[in-house]
Amino acid sequence: MGKIYQLFQKNKVIVLGILVGLVFVGYLVINKRPTNNEPVKTQVLADKKSASKEEIKSAEKTIVVDVQGAVNKPGVYHLKERTIVLDALQMAGGTKNDADLKQINQAKRLKDQMQIYVPNKTEKRSTGSGSAEKEAVNINTATVDDFKKVTGVGPKKAEKIIAFREQHGDFKDLNDLKKVSGFGEKTIEKLKDQLTV
């Protein structure tokens, strides 16, 4: 027993060094396990971030609608996808005092290139559908068949529009129709509620 004690006294620095080393190795072993899971957590967080970016991008898609009739600022407006007619009316500065909102479904979801026409109280819709919104015909993409929906544009005028478009490119404004034979200012005024660009 005395020999062991003497041996310990002579080599206590070495023994203490070994003990400290064992404690340090044990600490590293215990703390190493959680770090193995960290890359997985980071990956999951990265996936969540990328998913939320995609959701944001889809939410930011825009559509174009034409608002006409008894509104304060008629015109073409860019709105976010999944908005409703009421949003378009607000973008157009609200409705005039003589607007007949009973003829409009303000809760209807908007579609790209849609036209919203707000009639005044003296106007009556000929459609009989009880709805004052309709999709305008896009003069840059319409076919002869599409133009059949437009009152005042027969097959010959439709062909002239398409021929002009193919030769000169897309129309930038409805007033560009004046460049097409057979379309004057009065004709365009009558058609503006049925057409869009």
From TrEMBL:
Keyword terms: Membrane, Transmembrane, Transmembrane helix
TM stretches of this protein: 12-30
Superkingdom as given in the UniProt entry: Bacteria
Gene3D superfamilies documented for this protein: Outer membrane lipoprotein wza domain like (3.10.560.10), Tex RuvX-like domain-like (1.10.150.310)
Query: Start and end of every Helix-hairpin-helix DNA-binding motif class domain?
Result: 145-164, 175-194
What SUPFAM superfamilies does its record include? Answer: RuvA domain 2-like
Classification via InterPro entries: Competence_ComEA_HhH (IPR004509), Endo/Exo/Phosphatase_dom_1 (IPR051675), Hlx-hairpin-Hlx_DNA-bd_motif (IPR003583), RuvA_2-like (IPR010994), Soluble_ligand-bd (IPR019554)
Any one cellular-component term (Gene Ontology): type II protein secretion system complex
Q: Tell me one GO molecular function of this protein.
A: DNA binding
Q: Which Pfam families match?
A: HHH_3, SLBB
Annotated GO biological process: DNA repair; protein secretion by the type II secretion system
- The name this protein goes by in its record: Competence protein ComEA
